[in-house]
Amino acid sequence: MKTIKLAVIGAGARGFLAYMPYVQRFPREVEVVAVAEPNEERRTRFAEALNLTPEQIYSTWEELLNQPKLCDALLICTQDQMHYQPTVAALKKGYHVLLEKPMSNNPMECVEMEKIAHEEGRLLSICHVSRYTPFWQKMKQLINDGLIGNVMSIQHNENVGYLHYAHSFVRGNWRNDVLSSPMILAKSCHDMDLIRWIVDADCTKVSSFGSLGHFRIDNAPAGSTDRCTDGCEVEHTCPYSALPFYMQDLELNPFAALIADPPTETNRMNAIMEGPYGKCVYRTDNNVVDHQTVNMEFENGVTVIFSMCGFTRDINRTVQIMGTQGEIRGDLLRGSIDLFEFSSGTQTVFYTPTSSSGHQGGDDGIMRQFLSDLRHERYMDTLTSAEASLESHLMAFAAEESRRREGAVVDMKLFRQSFVATVH
């Protein structure tokens, strides 16, 4: 087996914590030969964990890409608005790329990256890790096997989890679409991708409704303060208080490990007292929606209702897929898929395996597939290629446009052409 050599741009939660465990477990499959990361502590931590020498460490992606070609492929895990430039530069330098989702927060950049990958004959795979989980693959198999006939309608719910939402989308890196991406893209492009994959047809119409309904200054409780540590009178009863949440044992709360490097108790307390993670959830510069629905119609007649909500107990996805001969109900958190067949009246419940790796095994799955695609020189039409991903990204952009236009129906053919025609 050929050992694939990679370089990593962005050594944060995804570039390091999500994908490097696979590298460390399977050193005969893959070797990391360089990293580019502007944060010194993250850069040092990554280098020590992957046994990199000082000559293999760069503070910027520009420094790394200015070197002679170092390896087979790059793993690019920068922030959303920082994907386009290193990806294009890498493709043109001859690298294959595994790119963290979303591709970009700019639809023109998404179209351009897909076009360049095609022209250069390079594999550009997008980290839609959900497609590689046993849960979603089993569901896709049941549909392909015809057990519910033709799919007619889907109801898909993304339950973000109230504490996850507060951490990532009120206080965290994805709280403001100017700094990152709209919620439908930053969080729910996984769901747009899954829906497009399951329906297996192009989307024709999109409409969307949603808003930032709760986490605003006018909803701040009486007696609350700018920070949880400023003598807030309701801190001890607030479900979003930073103190009990981020000072938990790291084994119980993985989000707590993300607010400081290294996440010692002292560093975490300093982060709460001085950084964004200690801000009152009603007094941040957040602007992304906390609830949103998207209505979609596809060329094959399938209709889909998607709902994202930040006010849920669990972090979970649930789905109901209704076909002409049966129905499937799925619960990702429990790994259960409930199949009911109309003709026989039989009900079968499948339980899919879980994994200790992130996204129910999807993080490991996409690494395994990307390396396999490189070894076998499968550069086009892969499971999560840029070509496949582009369509679901445009669905997300159309949904956001509709939401901003008070639910106006967006014609996807015209919307798609407005970007693709410009680039091509």
From TrEMBL:
User: Any idea which GO molecular function terms this record carries?
Assistant: nucleotide binding
Q: What residues does the Gfo/Idh/MocA-like oxidoreductase N-terminal domain cover?
A: 4-126
A Pfam match? GFO_IDH_MocA
Q: Could you name the domain of life of the organism this protein comes from?
A: Bacteria
Limits of the Gfo/Idh/MocA-like oxidoreductase C-terminal domain: 140-404
What family is it from? Answer: Belongs to the Gfo/Idh/MocA family.
**Protein name stated in the entry:** Oxidoreductase
